[in-house]
Predict the structure.
Amino acid sequence: MPRRASRSALFRLRTPGGLAGFLKTASICVLIAGLLSPLAQATAAAATASNDYCGGQCSDIVPPGENGNATLAQILLNQAFGTQPDHAEDQLGPYANLASGYSTLTDTKINNFFNDASFGVASDQVASSEKPAGRGDVTIVRDKKTGVPHITGTTRYGTEFGAGYAAAEDRLWLMDLFRHVGRGQLTSFAGGAAANQGLEQQFYRNAPYTEADLQAQIDNAVANNGARGQQALADANAYLAGINSYIDASDSGRYFPGEYVLTGHKDAVTNAGTIDHFKVTDLVALASVIGSLFGSGGGGEVNNALSLIAAQSKYGVEEGTKVWESFRERNDPEAVLTVHDGQSFPYGTKPANAQGEALPDAGSVTTEPLVYDATGTGASQSATAAARQATATALSSAKRGMSNALVVSGKYTASGHPVAVFGPQTGYFAPQLLMLQEIQGPGISARGASFAGLSMYVELGRGQDYSWSATTSGQDIIDTYAVELCQDDYHYLYHGTCTAMDKIEQKNAWKPTTADGTAAGSYTMRVWRTKYGPVSYRATVGGKKVAYTTLRSSYLHEADSIIGFQMLNDPDYVKSPQTFQSAVQHINYTFNWFYADSQHTAYYNSGDNPVRASGVDTEFPVWGQAAYEWRNWDPATNTAAYTPASQHPNSIDQDYYVSWNNKQAMDYTTASWGDGSVHRGNLLEDRVKKLVAAGGVTRTKLVQAMADAALADLRAEDVLPDLLKVVNSSTVTDPTAAAAVSKLQTWLTAGAKRSETSAGSKTYADSDAIRILDAWWPLLVKAEFQPGLGDDLYTALTANLPIDESPSAGHGPTGSHAGSSFQYGWWSYVDKDIRAVLGESVKNPLAEKYCGGGSLSDCRDALISTLKEAAGKSASEVYPGDDLCSAGDQWCADSINQRTLGGIKHHNISWQNRPTFQQVVEYTSHR
């Protein structure tokens, strides 16, 4: 039976109604036989693994599978019958099964749910071996279980050539998609679906690069990094040669990805059409997408200003500022910390006397248009809605980077060696953004995951005797400047001189294809660029017309991080926690980096944190004037003075580290809101802290802690108990409310998990309680806060921080069915306010008591009233259904879907809130 899956945002294959019958004919069988890729070459002996110090205790996984390429025939078979190409989804089942299998996990069972990440391939497990393009200096061996490429080269060039060839074998179509996303050309390449329009607009607004801009970034990265820069360029060129060699081979052999036919780039019969070769600037375009998604904290200053103005309008300047600061929670003493040993790393703190603020006049702010001259479906209602959402995402400080890490020092483990379970949450795609590989060659020795098209080095994974991973950190490297306009709307004052803005444009047009039937349309994306970055808003400040611009420290520096990744792959460079920290200091994106070897653990927060002018408050726009610019800022290259490594949160051998995009350390302010008393990082902190207190931590116990947190409902575990205290402060006499309270309490007692009754049941235990809380949360938050804050301020604050992020909500880089949940929401506000109303101790409380105006009885009335309303909402109302799920299907509404970026579809799996790529490591020895 064909598997049911949602339609893709990027790929909407229209299958003819008579396809099933057509496929049964002899002619299609001949076509399929001709289009299937060639048989693998003869197997070879296994690679040696004498450089592996993990003792068989390193594991990893990336669903759905390693193989992300499919021929036209394979796509047609998948669409018609649900059949899967080899290794397209063989990691999806083990990944999904951990949700029901973690409670009985043992060390010997770990690789039932993960891959063995040891170096090399045992001789009896070699599925294929090839020498790409007939080269004698590199071999690509693939294992039988997962088809992961193990690339071994005798020369550096050959090694990187093999890495590029293997990447194209596994992800060519995806790589091509995302180089077009990075260039703002997705709709012209893949079709004009509204989601495609939104995606390219989101990234183009943040990174409107010309071809010259892309090339300059390569030139500067090479010029500024000496021998390593030259090596990086040589590696990139060899990698590109490998990609292009595969393009040529698959084109002439007619086993290229079938999506090229379905999108009109190739003809299935004549083979007419071309697949463009990759060039070095494509790598920068790809890097800009990944960096924008996961590694660029900051922004949102205009939204911050609007909510501050609303607070001051409601309460007056002094009290309104206090109210705003209490919701902002810049440095909340109750926040969970990654570095929890008392170290302080001041960054982004509130200045005593702010200087240079350029707050807009009330009601004057308008968002800068991006789309012009739209025709056809480029001007449709759905296109307009997609553009609106893309703008909100691009200009928000709530970057959904996701990812988590659990690392325990050997002092507290059963073996005496550190244990780590960590990985990035990058959404769920088919094919997946990340791909697994092992690379062994001169100066390179690593296995792990890399973003497709950027896999000349392993970006997250393991070396010979160490592993590393990252989570998104989100500290502020983006500032908003107000530039005073002169002459007209497209000139501004720069250091007293009226200066013309640069106009950057990308014109796109599309027409229907088999893959995307969206009717023809077109538009032009236009960005006005200043020396202070692209224009994002227009407004007046004190009556003067201004443009608000967005300046990111990594803007025009998307390629710089290549040096840090090169170092992480170099066994002669990374030999200790200190050299690990030195390596990741060369990564200019905002990440938390974690390390473990057989003796030590370490942490470092990366990013080019600009040194700001004295008195500048990073929360708000400032004037585009010399006095308020970053220290030593050069607008020609967008370089500046950056805070030294010692001022970044860092640590070696702390008892344990946890990170789930929570606050890094004392006094280190992140750009996004919500680092308060309740954060999803608490789900890890509470579990790991208990394990460390008990001692004897094993890989199994740490995996279980992660997996248990992955099923937890943060609202239920950390906020519901206090809500029920208020509700039960006197006897609940209303039968509807009493029944709801009973169900919620039963679920809470059972652990407050969103887990199936049994593996594969597709029904939650305590499903009614879950439905009630999902319906209750937005109702109770509104009833608790809106009366006291007023409509305007409440609405403004929800623009800074959404009130909820349940598993069934549409959020994250892939929308709904994305797995990652509870990253942003009002859980801390509810927690602090309810505790204050209960009379409990609250550090750094909100400026006022909001629930019931501070009256326990009135607060209780508000909670019971909304609880009754929630209990009365049907499952169909709470879970309205979408193109994957029918209305009322709670399990499906939460479920994870591998969102199709190509022609191959996969079944959805039960919800888990865990990394997409994940490692479990415990090294037994060290070089």
User: Anything to note?
Assistant: The first strand starts at residue 58 and ends at 61. The radius of gyration is 27 Å.
